[in-house]
Give the backbone structure.
Amino acid sequence: MNSERRRFIKAMGATAATMAFAPVNVRAGSNYHVIVVGGGFAGATVAKYIRIWTGYAVDVTLIDAKPFHTSCVLSNLILNRRLPMSDLQISYDHLISNHGVRVINDKVSRIIPSSPAVKLENGGEMGADKIVVATGIGFEKPTGLDSRKSPHAWIAGNQTVSLARKLGNMGVDDTFIMTIPKSPYRCPPGPYERACIVADYLQRKGFDTGDKAKVLVLDANSDIQAEKSTFSRAFNNLYGNILDYRTGVDLYGVDSDNGIVQTTAGEFQGSLLNIIPQQRATALVRKPNADLTGGGRWAPVDPTTYQSTLFDDIYIIGDSQGTNQPKSAHMANSQAKVCADAIVRSLSNQPTDTSERLENITTNSACYSPINSREASWLTANFAYNQGTGQMQLAHIGEAHKWNSENYQEMFTWAQNLFTDCFI
């Protein structure tokens, strides 16, 4: 086993161990209550670990509009028919039965930081001692975009199924156009992974018989944002006959009816448009009179606790928070444990800013990226809290030297371990 692979495996294990020294001496019968808004990787993890680390003494209510979470992890494999959508739908039943988390299937219409409390669309108002907001990403849709005709599929679910169906219906003379928004966005390697998956799928259907590119990738960034070496080699060596990758192309409009993408580099026309819009915190996080972003794109937080810098007793984790860490499922899981530890300490009347604790705050983001239908690469990034700057600092980044079938098989083990740590 090479040194980079050992670092990756260590990073996978580190997520489960992060902040494992959390106190558990919250007094039983204390009637503390924590509300978690959003049941994705961040929300499920923080709900589970607050219960575990308090010896099940703190009541936790998780609120999500759906009775299950649909994982964005592995969701690009829906597009090339390697996985059914049902494999990515994760029930909250184990959070309920194993950890006593109360789950409410409803939508939060407003957060009331002063109480703190939340308003539910169907269930009135609910108060708590702490509220954790884990609602994922929001979008800034360009003019003219109809996501039913040009699905982004950047939140796994119906749009993923729609994009897969449209991809399967493409003819050999059709062109697939994908746009990549400026960073930061959810899952840094995700768009490049998708480009590979789509190019491989169309190649295997015989789409590379001519010299015209069938997959056009328009990236608003100046370069590949993650796994640059890997994806550059894949684009050039595996998919050079079918994929055209262009950088510095800003999107400003879409004509979904006619398959036209309007950009700073001109107009492009395709048969299937996969428009991934610019991203920001969700609408709930940006509500008037309770704007957790302070008018910005993302919600500012203290990275040692993930408490809002604008409102006490409100915490934001996962994609909507505004630190310099990548927005990914594994990172959301890691941040959730730091947050859970901070909340437990606060409810236990213990400080969160001791030297011991600050020196041990680490997070990581690890993932596998399928490059074709049978091979994958991987990436890991480790962060540590810098007491001098008050920010999380990149401590190490590792990348697979090559894609192979062993990585592809390990990808499913990694994903299952992550699913288990969050939801089981």
About this structure: The two ends are 30 Å apart (CA to CA).
